[in-house]
Amino acid sequence: MIKAVEDIATAMHGSYHFDFLHLLLPVGISFYTFHSISYVIDVYNGRIKPEHNLARFLLFVSFFPQLVAGPIARSENLLPQLQYLKNYDYNNFKKGFILIFWGLFKKMVIADRLAIAVNHVYNHVENATTVSLIIATLFFTYQIYCDFSGYSDIALGVSKLFGVDLIVNFKQPYFSKTITEFWRRWHISLSTWFRDYLYIPLGGNKVSKSKWIFNTMLVFVVSGLWHGANYTFLIWGAIHGLMLIIERFVYGDRIRQITSGISPANIIRWFITYVVVVIAWTFFRANNLGDAVTVFQKIFEFKNVGHDIASLFTIGGAEGLIGLKFYDLCLSIVFILLLVGVNFSLRKEGLSNVILNSSTPVRWSFYIAITFVVLWFGKLGINEFIYFQF
After folding, report:
1. Are the C-beta atoms of residues 108 and 147 closer than 8 Å to each other?
2. Cα(366)–Cα(286) distance, rounded to whole angstroms?
3. pLDDT value of residue 27
4. Distance CA 58, CA 72 (A)
5. What is the pLDDT of residue 26?
6. In the 8-state DSSP scheme, what is residue 254?
7. Longest C-alpha distance within the chain, in Å?
8. Which pLDDT belongs to residue 84?
9. What's the angle, vertex CA 385, arms to CA 382 and CA 390, rounded to 5?
10. Active site positions, annotated
11. What per-residue confidence (pLDDT) applies to 355?
């Protein structure tokens, strides 16, 4: 939202850039706004009773763990918990610790390492090659997932220390077999917010097909523009909206049934869904529309592919190609595979529940291992979360 305000200001006043807006706009303004709007609408519709305690209401709007990048809390879930805050509880501390360090692992060990390659390639697309763009594009899908879901895990963990339960914001989204399922798993608090406060008030599914198509596209275009007043974000949202419409006409009401379980057909559906998500992320990450077009042009040039692949295994070759040392490239691949393996094996149960239900030796082995991995392999320094800019 901050970027959108700056873009509008720049358009209105020529080339002058309003850097002071970073000081004038409060931190987390997007989430302040979403919390406040949902509260007002819920009170108006009679879903909740008005909160008469001003301090508790302000705490709800500005609850610090999820203030900057979510998850977006709902009044009916968070306000009652703020009324009866629990004292220190050892079980809450254990679960909070697991969530916090799992989030730090995603952010510091995976996302910040992948960011080196992604930024190196996408900030100089004119010099990029087919191999470097393919690597950077695939890396970005996991960078943004680990960066954003890592923040959400940390927010959930810190909240748990205070005995507060926030909504789980991510549920292994890259295992989705349709875009419809993807949005049931990705940034769940935002997708359900748009569903409840924009899509359903517009009529939801209880309208004509033409009106439903318009409403669906509107919701996703608005979601794209929420990230910034840029054509790339608009296209990102439009791609997802268009795919939801196509899936609705192809699968109808059978979409939940046909995507359950593992089968050859579902593997194909998963692959198609992942490709669409990657294409959409390319627009999301590109600095502008021109860069996005350049990325797609160069990816399909297939020039020097053999040479570039070979250079990845030569001294300094990987660093010259994608800005990442060969050692870090190998670590990135290993940790991504580890993450995928953990997510797949625990896709029906959360990591924290599995660890807490394990024996004491297993539990403490995890505590020691995750702490060591974060401190030893994590990219230390100031590396902001991607969604801080929104």
Report:
1. no
2. 37
3. 55
4. 15
5. 55
6. G
7. 68
8. 76
9. 130
10. 227
11. 84
Q: Give just the sign of the alpha carbon dihedral 182, 187, 193, 198.
A: negative
Provide the b/e sequence for 157-181 (b: ≥16 CB within 10 Å).
Answer: bbbbbbbbebbebbbbbbbbbbbbb
DSSP 127: G
Residues 6+ apart with CB under 8 A from 284: 144, 227, 232, 233, 236
- Count, residues in the chain: 390
pLDDT at residue number 277? 96
Structure-token pair, residue 32 = 């302040």
Neighbouring residues of 78: CB distance < 8 A, sequence distance ≥ 6:
60, 63, 164, 166
Look at residue 14 in the predicted model and tell me its pLDDT: 47
Q: Identify residue 355 by its one-letter amino acid code.
A: I
**Interaxial angle between packed helices 29-44 and 75-83, expressed in degrees from 0 to 180 and rounded to the nearest 10:** 90
- The tokens describing 352, both together, are 């924290």
Question: Under a CB-based contact definition with an 8 Å cutoff, are residues 256 and 232 in contact?
Answer: no
Reference 105, options 43, 150, 169, 40; nearest CA is 150
Helix, coil or strand: residue 7: helix
Cα 153 to Cα 136: distance, rounded to the nearest angstrom: 25
Q: Give the span between the Cα atoms of 305 and 312, in whole angstroms.
A: 11
Distance CA 217, CA 192 (A): 16
Residue pair 107/248 in contact by the 8 Å Cβ criterion: no
- How distant, in Å, are the alpha carbons of 154, 241, 359 from that of 218? 32, 8, 50
Mean pLDDT by 10 residues, the chain (390 residues): 50 47 53 82 87 85 77 84 76 88 93 93 90 93 93 91 88 91 91 89 86 91 82 92 90 73 84 95 92 91 80 79 87 93 80 82 89 88 69
Concatenating the DSSP letter of every residue in 165-224 gives: PPPP--S-GGG-SSHHHHHHHSSHHHHHHHIIIIITTTTTTSS-HHHHHHHHHHHHHHHH
Mean pLDDT of all residues belonging to the chain:
84
Return the pLDDT at 389.
66
Where b means 16+ CB within 10 Å and e means fewer, 215-240 reads bbbbbbbebbebbbbbbbbbbbbbbb
190 alpha-carbon distance from chain centroid: 10
